[in-house]
Every structure is written in structure tokens, then in C-alpha cells.
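Protein in question kept underneath.
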Amino acid sequence: MWSRSTMTERARVACATWSLVVLGAVASGASTATRSTVGADPAVATVLTLPDGRATHAAVLVPVAGPSDADMSLGSLGIHREAAEILARHGIATLRLASRGVDGSGGDWLASSFADRRRDLLAAVAALRADPRLAGARLGMVGTSEGAALAVAAAEEAGAHFVVALSLPMTDGIGGLRWQRDRAVESAPVSEAEKQAFVAASERLLSAVLEKDEAAVRVVLDGPMGAMLLPPYAMVPTEAEARLRFALSPWYRSQLELDVSAAAAALRMPTLAVYGGRDRVVDADGSAARLRAIPTAGSLFTVRVEPDRGHLLLREGDGPAAIDGVLWEAIAEWILERPTRRDADGG
């Protein structure tokens, strides 16, 4: 799909010691999965999946924003669990990372900043590097959405050999939220005056959150548009005081302040970026264009837009959403076939 030969349209670590708080190991065909934790204060839950034979490559799987378990579950679908099994069949070990406060992790995801989550990721990479079973394996990161942004932000410090960035936002956080909002407003069956009032209220909320002005945030959320101003995700509370705490949380503010464009431009390892043409969360075409415009993109970046996929790059249709096995097989092939900068440097 994205093989090197064809390249068609189808590719401050808090604690470097891996705390092997093993909760159980499960054999599954070509791999074995073991639950553990990485880091300290808090320790974050992970699941290590090893292939049957020697692992030539290893990657941390970094989930989307918000509370996510190590499987990056969507209903009964464990996206990262299934992806880990596919990668294991290609000799690629994975360490699936959970969010703080979820799946046995310590801490609280809503109280965590982007810098906190980046430290968790670095601790996970350090754990892979310290594992003697992975000696000599090329280490990288595979992330989706904010997970992709975390991978890009941590890759150089982590000494990664490769990055796979799925649905990577290449606008700043406020720009991304405005893009989502404006698309929703454009198609809303309301008057132009109501659309303008909603946009104005949204801008007041964004400014108040960035200024950490609790009184101003409360006024906007208590106003006539307040119930519609926060993202319509399941993790967003409905009770008034809880919505106020959500809007003022380090996690939500970090979503507005997020900008990894400079980190992406500084990457010096092969990077695969894949977008879904039907994405309604990230501006896929705009983000892909910004990546391709980076001067080193031609030699280091592979950028693809899958026209029939959405934000999570799942197969969607009449039945339940399912992981795109063909896509993950192509990701595995891309990882295995990429020469790395550190190969040339002897690293």
C-alpha cells in the first residue's frame, strides 16, 4: 500500500524505570500482551504486546485526547488492541498507553496538561528502550489526533526512529476548534443572526478560558448559548458547575494552546501522516498541505489522505465501525521498510 518501492496512494522523563506491576498476561495467536505501568507520580497504565519471535521494531501507541484506556476503546471496539495484534504479526512490538486516571492509571486526565501527557509518553519510550527483550529494536511512536501531536512533540527528545501520525492537527488549538465550529455553524438550520450570536459567544468563551477568567467563563456558560459552546463529546459534563470546571481545566486549556507545527518542521526522522478525507475534527486537507510545505517533507515525510475515512480512520458503513486492517497492514509495512536518519548516523 505504501511500500518504499511503489509508494502509491494506498503510507524530563519522570521515571525511566518500567514498573512491572503485572496484572496478567494473555497469549493471543502471534503475540503476548502484558499489563504494566510506566512512570511515577502518577504511574500510567500500559499494555505491552510482543510478537512471537524477535521484535525488529517497537512503538508506543498514543491515544486520542480525553479519557482513553490502553485499547483506545470505542464501544466494544478496541482500536489499539486490534492494531497491536496486526503490528505484532509483522514483528513490531507495541506499548499501548492509557490516559491518566483511566484503566488503572494514577492521576486525573482532566487535571493533566499537554506537557504532563508528553512526559507520560517519554516514560513509555524509556520503558521500551530499557526492556532487554527489545534490545536492538528501532523505536518509534504511533499516535492518533492529539496522540499524533504528542508523538511529534516528543519524537526528537525520545530519539525516535520513526513517527506515524494519524489525523495530526497542523493548526493551533484555537484554529482547530474554530474550524470545527464554523463547519457546524455553516450547516446549522438557524438564522444568520443566530449563527453570528453563537460565534460571538464562542469567541468570548475562548478568550475567557485562555485568560483563566473564571467569572467571565461562568457568564458565557450561563448565557443563552452556554449549553452549546463546549464540544459535543461524551466526556463533556452537562451539569453547570461541572461544565465550568471542565472549561477551566488544564486539559481543556491545553487543547486551545496546542500547536505542534514547529515541532513537526523540526522532525528529522521518517514520518508517516495519514488523514481521513471525511474528518470533521481535524482539517485533513489543510493539515496535509501544511506538512507537505515543510522543506524536509520530500525526503522524510509520507503524507496520505484516505478519502473514505473519518477522524479515527475506521471502516464505517451499514454495520458497526471496525478497524481498517488494510490501513494498519500498510502502516506496518511502511515502518519496516523505512530507512531512518539514525541508521545513517549509526544510532
Remarks:
- Residues 3-29, 342-347 have pLDDT under 50 and may be disordered.
- DSSP finds 13 helices and twelve strands in the chain.
